[in-house]
Amino acid sequence: GNYINGSPAISRGRTAFGGCDAIVHVVDVVGGKKLREIEAGAYIAASGAMEGNLLYVGHYENELLCVDVEAGKILWKYRDRAFPFMSSPAVTTDRVLVGSRDKRLHCIQRADGKPIWTFQTRGKVESSPVVAGDRVLLCALGAGVSWGSAVVVV
User: Is the pLDDT of residue 145 over 80?
Assistant: First the structure.
């Protein structure tokens, strides 16, 4: 075994999580039975977010993945620059929002992983964005400020 990072995501009686072994583990919540392991390609450093059968999770080799945990395969990968996704994603009806160590919040289409927009901050975004209506709240690490600063994106 290896270290598990972040919290497990739960949907439809299953939980999915990853860690330093670069594997997405899918487990039955009721019985604890391992349902499958899906190779992620790199160390997973944050919690994922699940909606139905789909898990959205970033990893240390600079990609955000959309994983179909029922089929056991990766549907799409989003990659922008050479910075890891250490933030847990927020999922809306048609978008995935995730922070990165590149000091940006990324907004991605849920259907195909194509970029919609990015928002530049002054620090690494390792916290999880929160969506409230048509606004996004996130916290970015500031230069020399370990507690970060809040940003509202409209």
Answer: no
